[in-house]
Amino acid sequence: MVDKKKNVKVLVLITLIIAVSSGFIFKSIKDKQKDEFVYYGTVEADKINLSTEIGGKVKEIKLQEGSKVKAGELIATIDSDENSLKLQDSEIAIKSAENELGKTQDGTRAEEIKAQEALVRQAQSLVKQGEAAVKIAENNLNSAQTNFDYKKKIYDDAAALYQSGADSKYKMDAAKNELDNATNVLNNAKDSLESSRAQVSNYSAQLDSSNEKLQLLVNGATERDKNSAQYGVEKAKNSYELNKVMLDKSNIVTSTDGIIETINFKKGEYIAPGSAVATLLDDKNLWVKIYVPESVLTHIKLEKEVTLTSDFLKDKTIKGKIIYISPEAEFTPMNIVTKNDRTKLVYEVKIKILDNIDSVKTGMLLDVNLK
């Protein structure tokens, strides 16, 4: 009788163990199925470099890092003495053109003819100087092109070695950095040559205008001559407006709403054309980048809406939309996984955040549910 009771207890215990084990296995399977579609990523925002179109010393920094800004808000000012002088020259040119118009309307004197001859000689000298500047710019461009071709070959070789596994990504990135610098130098050289040629064209136009005016003075003003003098006044005014536009470029303003992430220069530092005075985060265009295995690709597609959650936003479910799926696999990024996961091939997926923009901040860790 005792043995029978003992057997019953053993049977009940075995049954209980099987039930508990089955429940645990079932729960593990459910958790695994759930976790298979949940990935983690950090909130990021598009970065916009607020660059200057002119060179000069930083005169003033108006904002600090972390400041929220609106489109068109002043970030910094560049002290450009050259553009200020050009604007002053344009004002003088207007007065001179108006004076020439008055003289054309009044008639010609011998002193005026001599004065105009001097202006012609001055314009001829400027044309020669401009042509010399073009030659220098052409030499600089040739040098920059040679340097670019050399850096491009180094980068191509480094990229090929990296792709074959024969060299490190660090060397390829270093070569890419050198190539980017060479590209900037080449672009600046092209811009310089274009500017020099434009200047020669401008000087040539001035010379032609001076010669025409001289001829008018010698021959005497006609109605057409008077009209030409009037055009000279209008041209001087247009030149003034152009120089005013260039001077206005001394003010660096924001292109969109956002947050100032970094201020890249200090007051008094020289800044070259094309340099980024500050970097702006477009906090209204937020996204999360995750990495998924190949098995998940069949369950997702572009424009698919997904849900995102955060431990710090317990009462909110954030909507997102898949806007990019990488066509190529890569090794799992080392900074977000364990050592064992680094050998796995994954695909980059980018999710744009659609709502709760004001609650989500850059750098926040979000759970992305792709199911």
Automatic annotation (TrEMBL):
Subcellular location: Cell envelope
The keyword Transmembrane is annotated on this UniProt entry: no
Origin species: Clostridium aciditolerans
Pfam families: Beta-barrel_YknX, BSH_RND
GO cellular component terms, A-Z: cell envelope
Residues covered by the Multidrug resistance protein MdtA-like barrel-sandwich hybrid domain: 49-280
Lineage: Bacteria, Bacillati, Bacillota, Clostridia, Eubacteriales
Domain YknX-like beta-barrel: 294-368
Signal sequence, start to end: none
Residue ranges the record marks as coiled coil: 120-147, 172-213
UniProt cross-references to InterPro entries, sorted A to Z: Beta-barrel_YknX, MdtA-like_BSH, UPF0194_transport
Protein name from the UniProt record: HlyD family efflux transporter periplasmic adaptor subunit
Gene3D superfamilies assigned to the protein according to its UniProt record, in alphabetical order: 2.40.30.170, 2.40.50.100, Helix hairpin bin
Keywords, sorted A to Z: Coiled coil
